[in-house]
Structure formats: C-alpha cells, structure tokens
TrEMBL record, chain A:
<dbReference type="InterPro" id="IPR001041">
    <property type="entry name" value="2Fe-2S_ferredoxin-type"/>
</dbReference>
<protein>
    <recommendedName>
        <fullName>Succinate dehydrogenase iron-sulfur subunit</fullName>
        <ecNumber>1.3.5.1</ecNumber>
    </recommendedName>
</protein>
<dbReference type="InterPro" id="IPR009051">
    <property type="entry name" value="Helical_ferredxn"/>
</dbReference>
<dbReference type="Pfam" id="PF13085">
    <property type="entry name" value="Fer2_3"/>
</dbReference>
<keyword id="KW-0408">Iron</keyword>
<keyword id="KW-0001">2Fe-2S</keyword>
<dbReference type="InterPro" id="IPR006058">
    <property type="entry name" value="2Fe2S_fd_BS"/>
</dbReference>
<dbReference type="Pfam" id="PF13534">
    <property type="entry name" value="Fer4_17"/>
</dbReference>
<feature type="domain" description="4Fe-4S ferredoxin-type">
    <location>
        <begin position="143"/>
        <end position="173"/>
    </location>
</feature>
<dbReference type="InterPro" id="IPR036010">
    <property type="entry name" value="2Fe-2S_ferredoxin-like_sf"/>
</dbReference>
<dbReference type="InterPro" id="IPR017896">
    <property type="entry name" value="4Fe4S_Fe-S-bd"/>
</dbReference>
<feature type="domain" description="2Fe-2S ferredoxin-type">
    <location>
        <begin position="7"/>
        <end position="94"/>
    </location>
</feature>
<keyword id="KW-0411">Iron-sulfur</keyword>
<dbReference type="InterPro" id="IPR004489">
    <property type="entry name" value="Succ_DH/fum_Rdtase_Fe-S"/>
</dbReference>
<keyword id="KW-0003">3Fe-4S</keyword>
<dbReference type="InterPro" id="IPR025192">
    <property type="entry name" value="Succ_DH/fum_Rdtase_N"/>
</dbReference>
<dbReference type="InterPro" id="IPR012675">
    <property type="entry name" value="Beta-grasp_dom_sf"/>
</dbReference>
Length: 245, 117
C-alpha cells in the first residue's frame, strides 16, 4: 500500500454539538493514532483536549473512535486504519457524554459497574475484615476458569462504546459491568451472588443483550463479555425456572 | 419486595417465557411444516382436515400448546423491538403486550377447539 506523505485528520472539536476540524499531520513510520493526536496538540493546536496516560496499552484511558470504530489509540498503528489517501477521522468514544473534543465522560460507564455490584463482597469476612484462613480455589475448577476468562478487564469502555444495546437503551448496564459481575458470580469467596444476579437481571441488564458480540470483537484485551453475559442469562434462567430466586 | 425489584422480576419472567416458548416452537413448527407438506399432497379438503383433527385429543393438545407458545413468543419479541426502536417501556406496556400475546393465542386455541369438537 502506498503511504501518503501527510495525513488528513478530521478531529471532533467541542461538546455534543461540536463539529470536525481538519489538520494535516506528517505521516511517519510506526506512527500510532495517539502520536497523531499528540502531534496536533503539541504542534498545531494546544487547545485540543484528549486523554491518555501509559501509552503502552495498560491503562485504557486513550480509547477514541477511530474511523468509526472504538480503539485504543496508543495500540493502533496509523497504517492499519488509513487508506492510501491518508484520511483519519477521530471522535470521542460513542455512547458517552462528550466533555470536550476527544475526551468522553466515563462517569456513566463506571456508575454502571457499581449498579451491577461489581465490587467483591467477602463471604467469610464481612465489613472488610481479614479472613481467618486462605480460601482454596482450585485453578482447574470451572468457576475459577470462568472468572479468569474475564478478570483482565481494565475498564477502557471500548466495548461499551461499541454496544448497540447501550445506544438503544441508556439504562443498559453494558458489557464491561456485566463481564465484571460474571467474574464475581464465579468467585467462590464472594457472598453477594443473589444480590448481584438481581442487579444484572431484566431489561437494563443481561436480558436485553442480543449477543451480536461487538464487545467481544472489539475488546483490545481479547476478552469475551458476550459469553460472560450469556453465562449470567444461563444462571438466571435456571434459577428462575427452578425457583431458586 | 419493592416496585423496581418486582419490575425486574417481571422482565426476567417474560424473558424466561420467551426462551421456553422458543424451545416449544422449535418442535411445534417442525411438526407443523411436516403436517402441511403431508396434508397438501393430493389436494386439501375440509373432510380430510376434520378427519385428522376431530375428536383427537393429541392434536388438540398440540395446537393449544403451539398457539400459546406462538402468541406469547411473538408478543414478547415485539415488546423488545418496540422498547429498542420507539422507546415503548414500562409496566403498562408490558401488560398490554402480555394481553396481546394471550389474545393472539386465544384465537388459535379457539380454532383448534372448533376443529376438535
């Protein structure tokens, strides 16, 4: 593929009712999308607002909509997302309020982690006390493997921004919160299973998921929130049918 | 139990009903299609249909279950579409959809009883 000498970058400026501004950014070898945004802010327009921290795919704070798709900008090479004409379109993450320019407000996203009861509630040691003994969790057990599969989420909100159901229903908890809930449902040390399943049930929870799997497709950590949600549905199905809740 | 918890429970029950009816429909639709293909061979007549259905409890039970499953499954599916496309949500809407599903089922059940009797 022939590479353009300069990139034609359209960047969202302003709040919800903002618009695109155009910048020409020199194309370089091994350039990431985050490099492009940083170049714009440092060399062309210091008023540009965006968010990043680690630059190496650990913190999850630089996610944006790159050419229509939510991605970590630090781990996205420009050559992977632009055509020969060098056109790049950057927006803040979808399905979240826009603070300004490329910075989205993640408060609703994290509020939903709380609503989905995404914090560990120790069964043996209420009120945060230290348990008397270590819990034994066999690494090969089914519950442990289910929990392991989803535990590496770093909360970047790429799945949330990619989810159609969030777009249709603003109350919907979204993939990350339910992925977290599923890891805790499978944590044998946790004591809030019933309340958590209650919190993720119904139209604002797992029962609205269409299993179209955009979350799984786009998760930069290759996690599978769609399967986690399916696990919650399965658990709630049998619990409801057999009168266990 | 507070209202929101009750609402969530109702939504979960609707979802469970839709899954169970889907399982029933998987079998019922297959039987239905095979019956249609069999029935239309050599022409379709009222005598033939009545001969198959009149006085046969097995077929009556099959069609009652089929109509109930189809009515509920369809209405619950439409409920989800209406919620997501035009934002029609809430307890009132849920009850209306349930009524629509049961009414649809009632028409089918009435027809099945008519052919049985």
């Amino acid at each position: 593929m022939a590479e353009a000498a300069s990139l034609k970058v359209s960047v969202w400026r302003g709040g919800e009712d903002g618009g695109f501004a155009r910048y020409d950014v020199p194309a370089r070898a091994n350039q990431t999308v985050l490099d492009v945004v940083t170049h714009i802010q440092r060399e062309l327009d210091p008023s540009l607002a965006y968010r990043f921290a680690c630059r190496v795919g650990m913190c999850g704070s630089c996610a944006m909509t790159v050419n229509g798709r939510a991605r970590w900008t630090c781990r996205t090479h420009v050559r992977k997302v632009v055509d020969a004409d060098g056109a790049l379109e950057l927006r803040p993450l979808a399905n979240l309020p826009v603070i300004r320019d490329l910075a989205a407000d993640l408060a609703p996203f994290f509020d939903k982690w709380q609503r989905a009861k995404g914090s560990f509630q120790p069964k043996d040691a209420p009120d945060g006390a230290v348990p008397e003994d270590f819990a034994v969790v066999p690494p090969g057990s089914k519950a442990r493997r289910e929990a392991d599969a989803g535990i590496e989420c770093i909360g970047c909100a790429v799945c949330y921004a990619s989810c159609d159901v969030v777009a249709w229903n603003p109350d919907y908890l979204g993939p990350a919160a339910m992925n977290r809930a599923w890891t805790l449902v499978n944590d044998v040390r946790d004591g809030a299973r019933g309340e958590r399943l209650e919190a993720v049930a119904g139209d604002a929870g797992c029962h609205s998921c269409h299993s179209t799997q955009s979350c799984t497709e786009r998760c930069p950590k290759n996690l599978d929130p769609s399967s986690a949600i399916a696990g919650l549905k399965r658990t709630l199905f049998w619990d409801t049918l057999l009168g266990r809740r | 139990m507070n209202r929101s918890r009750q609402a969530i429970r109702g939504q979960t029950h609707l979802w469970v009903v839709q899954r169970v009816t889907a399982m029933l429909l998987a079998v019922a639709v297959t039987v239905h299609l095979v019956t249609i293909i069999g029935a239309v061979r050599g022409g379709l007549s009222a005598t033939e249909i009545l001969g198959r259905l009149q006085g046969h409890e097995g077929w009556l039970i099959f069609y009652v279950v089929f109509a109930l499953a189809a009515g509920l499954h369809g209405a619950i599916g439409l409920r989800a579409i209406a919620a997501e496309t035009i934002g029609l949500r809430g307890r009132g809407a849920d009850l209306a959809w349930l009524a629509a599903g049961l009414a649809t089922a009632a028409f089918g059940i009435r027809a099945a009883i008519g052919l049985y009797a």
